[in-house]
Design brief:
about 400 residues; alpha+beta; seven-stranded mixed beta sheet; 16 strands
Length: about 400
């Protein structure tokens, strides 16, 4: 009985194996029934090259950042625009390269700022560095190193007291009963005074930094003459005081290294980058910038709010023979779009990559196989037709 049970188990296993064999999608051919050809070898090489190329391309596409975008009405009201800039004025000294910020009505805007200036010689080499004290003010403050501790020249109240600015020196001299004229001869006052005197060898100025302005139509500029503000009945007028000599000497040649509005995100394009303009005449240069509020959502969850923009440049040659003419200078005027673009980085799953790679490898293998069998079929039919023609000629003879 035991032997019968074992035989029955073996019979059941055999039936299962036979059933599994019937499900085989890959029937085998005896090795002696196959043949290899030159055309098959060539198609195999082509198949491998295509697989490798498409696999590399697919992996590269998977590694790229893919985003989707939507357009909505901008709901941000009380927002601040951070303007980042780096501009070289080739023929305007730093004492004259004064940044003014205005709103759409022409009134000065009070804006937080960090504006740094580098004095340049004729060859564009840096002479000295300073910081613009305030908007519309020509005076520059020297950049003091972090660990700098200026001497108080014996007027300090304690041993570790530092006097880093001219104002601090003057205050200490006044408290100590020393003459104010002596303070002007100290290192700090000489340094600050020299920052605000045009050097004979100073030719240009590189101005960089950032402005934090209200989210409203406005602009900023560097123009000829000394900027000033006049107040009338609850409003202000922005003016530039100049003489004819200032106008004739004013040269608007400049290089915009970059101007951005807010932070950058992957793939962002700033059109006002490495823009060069050389002026041969007295002219006014205007850049009209249309800002597009933009939000960028990273896959990590981080979100940045910034501004893309498009810019157009216009140059107006000034006719000094006229009684009234535009103010020579470089003006950047910006307006804000009412729509906001939202970019969101799409999540890409590894299983999608595996699926696509399998599709590539299998698809290439099948297509090349179809071509191979098609070529062989064509050759077979062509040989039959040739044999038939030969037999017909022999029978006619």
């Amino acid at each position: 009985q035991k032997i019968e049970n074992e035989n029955e188990n073996e019979t059941n296993q055999t039936k299962i194996i036979q059933a599994v064999k019937k499900l085989d999608f890959y029937p085998k051919t005896e090795s002696n029934a196959t043949s290899k050809t030159n055309s098959g070898g060539i198609l195999t090489i082509i198949c491998i090259i295509l697989m490798v190329y498409l696999t590399i391309f697919e992996i590269y596409d998977y590694s790229r950042i893919s985003t989707k975008d939507i357009l909505v009405v901008d709901q941000e009201v009380n927002d601040t625009i951070q303007i980042n800039f780096d501009v070289t004025f080739h023929k305007i000294p730093c004492i004259s390269a004064v940044i003014d910020v205005l709103d759409v009505s022409g009134e000065p805007q009070s804006a937080r700022h960090n504006i740094y200036k580098v004095r340049l010689d004729e060859d564009g080499n840096a002479i000295a560095k300073g910081k613009q004290i305030d908007l519309g003010v020509a005076s520059m403050a020297p950049i003091i190193p972090e660990n700098y501790c200026g001497s108080c020249y014996g007027t300090q109240k304690h041993a570790n007291q530092c006097c880093n600015t001219c104002a601090e020196i003057k205050l200490q001299f006044s408290l100590a009963g020393r003459a104010a004229g002596l303070a002007e001869q100290t290192e700090q006052c000489i340094r600050e005074t020299s920052m605000n005197i045009k050097k004979k060898f100073e030719y240009g100025c590189r101005v960089s930094g950032n402005l934090f302005v209200k989210k409203a139509k406005g602009g900023f500029h560097v123009a000829a003459g000394e900027s000033s503000t006049e107040t009338h009945d609850h409003h202000q007028h922005h003016l530039h005081k100049l003489n004819i000599a200032d106008i004739f000497k004013f040269n608007s040649s400049h290089t915009i290294h970059y101007i951005t509005f807010g932070a950058s995100f992957p793939g962002m394009i700033n059109s006002l980058t490495n823009i060069k303009h050389k002026s041969e005449v007295v002219e006014q240069i205007k850049y009209f910038v249309n800002l597009v509020p933009t939000s960028y959502h990273f896959r990590s969850g981080k979100v940045i709010h910034t501004y893309q923009y498009a810019a157009n440049e216009f140059a107006f040659q000034i006719n000094l023979q006229q009684r009234q003419f535009p103010l020579p200078g470089i003006f950047i005027d910006y307006d804000i779009n009412a729509m906001r673009v939202i970019y969101t980085e799409e999540e890409r799953f590894f299983l999608h990559l595996i699926t696509r790679l399998c599709a590539i490898i299998g698809g290439v293998y099948v297509v090349i196989g179809i071509l191979y069998h098609g070529i062989n079929r064509f050759k077979f039919l062509f040989n039959i037709k040739s044999s038939s023609s030969t037999d017909t000629l022999i029978s006619m003879e």
